[in-house]
Amino acid sequence: MAPANARARSHSLLLFQKLLNLRDGASPLTLLLDSLEQPAQPVVDEFVTRAKISKSKVIFCSFETFRKPKDVDCFIRASGKDLQSVRAELVAQYPAYDPIAARDKAAQRTIVIIDSVNSLASSDPEALAMFLTTIITPVISLVATYHVDVPIVLPKSWNEYEPHPFTILCHLATAILRLSNLQQEIERQKARNRSLVEPEWGLKEEREGVLFGLIETPKKEPGVVVAMELRRRSGRTVSEQFILTPSPPRPGKLMLLTDHDVFAAPVDEEAAGGENGEEQPESTFSLGLTDKQRKDREGIVLPYFDAQTDIGAGEGGRILYEMGREDDFDDEEDEI
Which residue ranges are recorded for the region named Disordered (predicted)? Predict the structure, then answer.
Protein backbone atom coordinates (compact mmCIF):
# COMPACT_ATOMS: atom_id res chain seq x y z
CA MET A 1 0.00 0.00 0.00
CA ALA A 2 2.82 2.40 0.83
CA PRO A 3 4.51 2.27 -2.61
CA ALA A 4 1.15 2.65 -4.34
CA ASN A 5 0.29 5.63 -2.15
CA ALA A 6 3.67 7.26 -2.84
CA ARG A 7 3.21 6.68 -6.56
CA ALA A 8 -0.22 8.33 -6.49
CA ARG A 9 1.13 11.33 -4.57
CA SER A 10 4.00 11.80 -7.03
CA HIS A 11 1.58 11.47 -9.93
CA SER A 12 -0.68 14.20 -8.49
CA LEU A 13 2.26 16.58 -8.01
CA LEU A 14 3.46 15.98 -11.56
CA LEU A 15 -0.01 16.69 -12.94
CA PHE A 16 -0.23 19.96 -11.01
CA GLN A 17 3.23 21.04 -12.18
CA LYS A 18 2.29 20.17 -15.74
CA LEU A 19 -0.84 22.29 -15.38
CA LEU A 20 1.07 25.28 -14.01
CA ASN A 21 3.67 24.96 -16.77
CA LEU A 22 0.92 24.57 -19.42
CA ARG A 23 2.99 21.77 -20.89
CA ASP A 24 1.60 19.92 -23.94
CA GLY A 25 -1.69 21.79 -23.68
CA ALA A 26 -2.51 20.25 -20.29
CA SER A 27 -5.59 22.47 -19.95
CA PRO A 28 -6.90 24.71 -22.74
CA LEU A 29 -9.19 26.52 -20.26
CA THR A 30 -8.22 26.82 -16.59
CA LEU A 31 -10.76 28.44 -14.27
CA LEU A 32 -9.54 30.07 -11.04
CA LEU A 33 -12.18 30.44 -8.33
CA ASP A 34 -11.10 33.04 -5.79
CA SER A 35 -12.68 35.28 -3.16
CA LEU A 36 -11.92 38.30 -1.01
CA GLU A 37 -10.31 36.03 1.56
CA GLN A 38 -7.89 34.58 -1.02
CA PRO A 39 -7.42 36.48 -4.29
CA ALA A 40 -6.08 34.65 -7.33
CA GLN A 41 -3.11 37.02 -7.79
CA PRO A 42 -0.46 34.64 -6.34
CA VAL A 43 -1.59 31.82 -8.64
CA VAL A 44 -1.76 34.13 -11.66
CA ASP A 45 1.78 35.33 -10.90
CA GLU A 46 2.88 31.70 -10.73
CA PHE A 47 1.46 31.06 -14.21
CA VAL A 48 3.26 34.15 -15.54
CA THR A 49 6.58 33.23 -13.89
CA ARG A 50 6.57 29.72 -15.31
CA ALA A 51 5.48 31.00 -18.73
CA LYS A 52 8.45 33.38 -18.87
CA ILE A 53 10.83 30.57 -17.92
CA SER A 54 9.49 28.44 -20.77
CA LYS A 55 9.67 31.47 -23.11
CA SER A 56 5.93 31.52 -23.72
CA LYS A 57 4.13 34.69 -24.69
CA VAL A 58 1.82 36.19 -22.03
CA ILE A 59 -1.24 38.22 -23.06
CA PHE A 60 -3.22 39.89 -20.27
CA CYS A 61 -6.86 40.73 -21.01
CA SER A 62 -8.02 43.26 -18.42
CA PHE A 63 -11.59 43.84 -17.27
CA GLU A 64 -10.70 45.32 -13.86
CA THR A 65 -6.91 45.82 -13.84
CA PHE A 66 -5.66 49.34 -14.56
CA ARG A 67 -1.90 48.86 -14.81
CA LYS A 68 0.08 46.42 -16.88
CA PRO A 69 1.37 43.61 -14.61
CA LYS A 70 5.03 42.69 -14.50
CA ASP A 71 6.43 40.22 -17.07
CA VAL A 72 3.35 40.57 -19.31
CA ASP A 73 4.12 40.87 -23.03
CA CYS A 74 0.82 42.36 -24.16
CA PHE A 75 -1.82 44.23 -22.14
CA ILE A 76 -5.32 44.61 -23.59
CA ARG A 77 -8.00 46.74 -21.94
CA ALA A 78 -11.33 45.01 -22.50
CA SER A 79 -13.59 46.84 -20.05
CA GLY A 80 -16.51 48.54 -21.80
CA LYS A 81 -15.56 47.23 -25.25
CA ASP A 82 -17.51 45.03 -27.60
CA LEU A 83 -16.54 41.36 -27.47
CA GLN A 84 -15.86 41.23 -31.19
CA SER A 85 -13.30 44.02 -30.94
CA VAL A 86 -11.71 42.39 -27.88
CA ARG A 87 -11.43 39.12 -29.74
CA ALA A 88 -9.87 40.90 -32.75
CA GLU A 89 -7.24 42.52 -30.50
CA LEU A 90 -6.44 39.18 -28.89
CA VAL A 91 -6.13 37.28 -32.17
CA ALA A 92 -3.90 40.02 -33.59
CA GLN A 93 -1.36 39.28 -30.82
CA TYR A 94 -1.34 35.53 -31.41
CA PRO A 95 1.79 34.03 -33.00
CA ALA A 96 1.44 32.48 -36.44
CA TYR A 97 0.16 28.93 -36.17
CA ASP A 98 2.18 26.30 -37.99
CA PRO A 99 0.62 22.79 -37.83
CA ILE A 100 3.96 21.10 -38.51
CA ALA A 101 5.75 23.04 -35.76
CA ALA A 102 2.86 22.41 -33.39
CA ARG A 103 3.07 18.69 -34.10
CA ASP A 104 6.78 18.77 -33.26
CA LYS A 105 6.09 20.87 -30.12
CA ALA A 106 8.38 23.60 -31.46
CA ALA A 107 5.74 26.31 -31.84
CA GLN A 108 5.74 29.17 -29.38
CA ARG A 109 2.96 28.68 -26.86
CA THR A 110 0.87 31.60 -25.64
CA ILE A 111 -1.04 32.05 -22.42
CA VAL A 112 -4.03 34.41 -22.27
CA ILE A 113 -4.99 35.61 -18.79
CA ILE A 114 -8.43 37.13 -18.10
CA ASP A 115 -8.42 38.86 -14.75
CA SER A 116 -12.21 38.58 -14.26
CA VAL A 117 -15.06 37.02 -16.18
CA ASN A 118 -17.73 38.30 -13.78
CA SER A 119 -18.33 41.51 -15.66
CA LEU A 120 -18.37 39.58 -18.93
CA ALA A 121 -20.94 37.15 -17.52
CA SER A 122 -23.12 40.01 -16.30
CA SER A 123 -22.97 42.19 -19.42
CA ASP A 124 -23.35 39.52 -22.12
CA PRO A 125 -23.93 36.04 -20.64
CA GLU A 126 -25.31 34.66 -23.90
CA ALA A 127 -22.01 35.31 -25.72
CA LEU A 128 -19.79 34.09 -22.88
CA ALA A 129 -19.31 30.53 -24.15
CA MET A 130 -18.81 31.62 -27.76
CA PHE A 131 -16.22 34.24 -26.80
CA LEU A 132 -14.13 31.85 -24.71
CA THR A 133 -14.17 29.00 -27.21
CA THR A 134 -13.23 31.20 -30.17
CA ILE A 135 -10.09 32.66 -28.56
CA ILE A 136 -8.63 29.21 -27.79
CA THR A 137 -6.38 27.56 -30.39
CA PRO A 138 -4.08 24.50 -30.24
CA VAL A 139 -1.19 26.72 -29.08
CA ILE A 140 -3.25 29.02 -26.82
CA SER A 141 -4.01 28.28 -23.17
CA LEU A 142 -6.59 30.40 -21.38
CA VAL A 143 -6.56 31.16 -17.65
CA ALA A 144 -9.68 32.96 -16.41
CA THR A 145 -10.53 34.16 -12.89
CA TYR A 146 -14.02 34.03 -11.43
CA HIS A 147 -14.86 35.75 -8.13
CA VAL A 148 -17.25 33.43 -6.30
CA ASP A 149 -18.34 36.11 -3.81
CA VAL A 150 -19.26 38.70 -6.46
CA PRO A 151 -22.89 38.31 -7.55
CA ILE A 152 -23.72 38.25 -11.26
CA VAL A 153 -26.59 40.50 -12.24
CA LEU A 154 -28.28 38.87 -15.20
CA PRO A 155 -30.13 41.03 -17.77
CA LYS A 156 -33.92 41.00 -17.89
CA SER A 157 -33.82 39.25 -21.27
CA TRP A 158 -32.11 36.23 -19.72
CA ASN A 159 -34.14 33.04 -19.95
CA GLU A 160 -34.60 31.54 -16.50
CA TYR A 161 -34.45 28.03 -17.97
CA GLU A 162 -30.96 28.55 -19.36
CA PRO A 163 -28.00 27.46 -17.24
CA HIS A 164 -26.30 30.05 -15.06
CA PRO A 165 -23.07 31.56 -16.49
CA PHE A 166 -21.08 30.01 -13.65
CA THR A 167 -22.47 26.59 -14.59
CA ILE A 168 -21.42 27.20 -18.19
CA LEU A 169 -17.90 28.17 -17.09
CA CYS A 170 -17.52 25.04 -14.97
CA HIS A 171 -18.74 22.94 -17.90
CA LEU A 172 -16.29 24.49 -20.37
CA ALA A 173 -13.25 24.47 -18.07
CA THR A 174 -10.84 21.56 -18.40
CA ALA A 175 -9.25 22.44 -15.04
CA ILE A 176 -10.82 24.15 -12.02
CA LEU A 177 -8.64 25.54 -9.22
CA ARG A 178 -10.51 26.53 -6.04
CA LEU A 179 -8.35 28.82 -3.90
CA SER A 180 -8.49 29.34 -0.16
CA ASN A 181 -6.30 30.96 2.48
CA LEU A 182 -3.81 28.59 4.11
CA GLN A 183 -3.96 30.14 7.58
CA GLN A 184 -7.74 30.02 7.58
CA GLU A 185 -7.71 26.38 6.50
CA ILE A 186 -5.32 25.64 9.36
CA GLU A 187 -7.72 27.25 11.85
CA ARG A 188 -10.59 25.20 10.40
CA GLN A 189 -8.58 21.99 10.67
CA LYS A 190 -7.70 22.72 14.30
CA ALA A 191 -11.39 23.20 15.03
CA ARG A 192 -12.24 19.90 13.31
CA ASN A 193 -9.58 18.10 15.35
CA ARG A 194 -11.24 19.34 18.54
CA SER A 195 -14.78 18.66 17.26
CA LEU A 196 -15.62 22.37 17.37
CA VAL A 197 -17.59 24.53 14.97
CA GLU A 198 -15.36 25.67 12.12
CA PRO A 199 -14.69 29.43 12.11
CA GLU A 200 -15.70 31.54 9.13
CA TRP A 201 -14.35 34.76 7.70
CA GLY A 202 -15.48 37.51 5.36
CA LEU A 203 -18.98 37.28 3.90
CA LYS A 204 -19.62 33.92 5.53
CA GLU A 205 -19.50 35.56 8.94
CA GLU A 206 -22.79 37.24 7.98
CA ARG A 207 -21.86 40.43 9.82
CA GLU A 208 -23.17 43.81 8.81
CA GLY A 209 -20.64 46.48 7.95
CA VAL A 210 -16.98 46.05 7.09
CA LEU A 211 -15.24 42.72 6.55
CA PHE A 212 -13.20 41.72 9.58
CA GLY A 213 -11.88 38.45 8.28
CA LEU A 214 -9.08 40.06 6.29
CA ILE A 215 -7.44 41.65 9.34
CA GLU A 216 -8.22 39.21 12.17
CA THR A 217 -6.04 36.34 10.92
CA PRO A 218 -3.30 35.65 13.52
CA LYS A 219 0.32 35.03 12.44
CA LYS A 220 -0.46 34.62 8.78
CA GLU A 221 1.38 31.69 7.17
CA PRO A 222 2.40 32.24 3.55
CA GLY A 223 0.80 29.94 1.05
CA VAL A 224 -2.34 29.27 -0.94
CA VAL A 225 -4.45 26.13 -0.69
CA VAL A 226 -5.37 24.98 -4.20
CA ALA A 227 -8.07 22.36 -4.70
CA MET A 228 -7.45 21.01 -8.21
CA GLU A 229 -10.05 19.36 -10.38
CA LEU A 230 -8.34 18.30 -13.60
CA ARG A 231 -10.35 16.70 -16.38
CA ARG A 232 -8.23 14.39 -18.49
CA ARG A 233 -8.81 13.68 -22.16
CA SER A 234 -10.00 10.20 -21.26
CA GLY A 235 -12.85 11.74 -19.26
CA ARG A 236 -11.37 10.81 -15.89
CA THR A 237 -11.26 13.54 -13.25
CA VAL A 238 -8.25 13.95 -10.97
CA SER A 239 -8.95 15.78 -7.70
CA GLU A 240 -6.27 16.72 -5.18
CA GLN A 241 -5.41 19.55 -2.77
CA PHE A 242 -2.06 21.32 -2.77
CA ILE A 243 -0.24 24.13 -1.00
CA LEU A 244 1.46 26.67 -3.26
CA THR A 245 4.06 28.89 -1.62
CA PRO A 246 5.07 31.69 -4.02
CA SER A 247 8.75 32.61 -4.17
CA PRO A 248 9.16 35.21 -6.95
CA PRO A 249 10.98 35.52 -9.26
CA ARG A 250 11.48 31.76 -9.10
CA PRO A 251 8.71 29.16 -9.33
CA GLY A 252 6.86 28.58 -6.10
CA LYS A 253 7.13 25.51 -3.90
CA LEU A 254 4.47 22.82 -4.21
CA MET A 255 3.37 20.22 -1.69
CA LEU A 256 0.34 18.11 -1.02
CA LEU A 257 -2.02 19.41 1.62
CA THR A 258 -1.74 16.16 3.55
CA ASP A 259 2.05 16.65 3.80
CA HIS A 260 1.51 19.67 6.04
CA ASP A 261 1.92 18.98 9.77
CA VAL A 262 -1.58 20.24 10.63
CA PHE A 263 -3.38 18.28 7.91
CA ALA A 264 -1.38 15.05 8.21
CA ALA A 265 -3.40 12.05 9.35
CA PRO A 266 -2.48 10.87 12.87
CA VAL A 267 -0.34 7.73 12.86
CA ASP A 268 -0.13 5.27 15.76
CA GLU A 269 3.47 4.12 15.70
CA GLU A 270 2.81 1.01 17.82
CA ALA A 271 -0.16 -0.02 15.67
CA ALA A 272 1.67 0.77 12.43
CA GLY A 273 4.91 -0.99 13.31
CA GLY A 274 3.51 -3.65 15.60
CA GLU A 275 5.55 -5.77 17.94
CA ASN A 276 9.02 -6.54 16.57
CA GLY A 277 8.05 -5.01 13.22
CA GLU A 278 5.09 -7.34 12.66
CA GLU A 279 1.92 -6.06 11.06
CA GLN A 280 -1.06 -5.74 13.37
CA PRO A 281 -4.74 -6.00 12.43
CA GLU A 282 -6.69 -2.74 12.22
CA SER A 283 -8.64 -1.98 15.37
CA THR A 284 -10.10 0.96 17.28
CA PHE A 285 -7.96 0.13 20.35
CA SER A 286 -4.33 -0.70 20.93
CA LEU A 287 -3.36 -4.35 20.55
CA GLY A 288 0.15 -3.91 21.88
CA LEU A 289 1.43 -5.30 25.19
CA THR A 290 3.70 -3.72 27.75
CA ASP A 291 6.79 -5.54 29.04
CA LYS A 292 5.06 -6.47 32.27
CA GLN A 293 2.01 -7.84 30.43
CA ARG A 294 4.25 -9.85 28.13
CA LYS A 295 6.15 -11.42 31.07
CA ASP A 296 2.90 -12.26 32.88
CA ARG A 297 1.54 -13.89 29.75
CA GLU A 298 4.64 -16.06 29.39
CA GLY A 299 4.37 -17.20 33.02
CA ILE A 300 0.80 -18.51 32.74
CA VAL A 301 0.47 -22.32 32.82
CA LEU A 302 -2.47 -23.47 30.74
CA PRO A 303 -4.76 -26.27 32.04
CA TYR A 304 -3.85 -29.78 30.84
CA PHE A 305 -0.64 -28.32 29.42
CA ASP A 306 1.08 -31.70 29.67
CA ALA A 307 -1.50 -33.24 27.33
CA GLN A 308 -0.34 -30.95 24.51
CA THR A 309 3.05 -32.63 24.32
CA ASP A 310 3.75 -35.80 22.41
CA ILE A 311 3.67 -38.86 24.72
CA GLY A 312 4.42 -41.80 22.49
CA ALA A 313 2.85 -42.52 19.14
CA GLY A 314 -0.79 -41.48 18.88
CA GLU A 315 -1.12 -40.47 22.54
CA GLY A 316 -0.59 -36.73 22.23
CA GLY A 317 -4.30 -35.93 22.58
CA ARG A 318 -5.17 -37.91 25.73
CA ILE A 319 -6.44 -36.15 28.85
CA LEU A 320 -4.52 -36.54 32.11
CA TYR A 321 -6.70 -36.49 35.18
CA GLU A 322 -5.69 -36.69 38.83
CA MET A 323 -8.32 -37.90 41.29
CA GLY A 324 -9.16 -35.93 44.38
CA ARG A 325 -10.20 -37.11 47.81
CA GLU A 326 -13.86 -36.41 47.10
CA ASP A 327 -13.85 -38.48 43.89
CA ASP A 328 -15.44 -41.96 43.98
CA PHE A 329 -13.44 -44.49 42.04
CA ASP A 330 -15.62 -46.77 39.92
CA ASP A 331 -14.16 -49.89 38.31
CA GLU A 332 -16.80 -50.01 35.60
CA GLU A 333 -16.06 -46.40 34.47
CA ASP A 334 -12.38 -47.21 34.47
CA GLU A 335 -12.99 -50.11 32.15
CA ILE A 336 -14.91 -47.89 29.74
Answer: 271-292
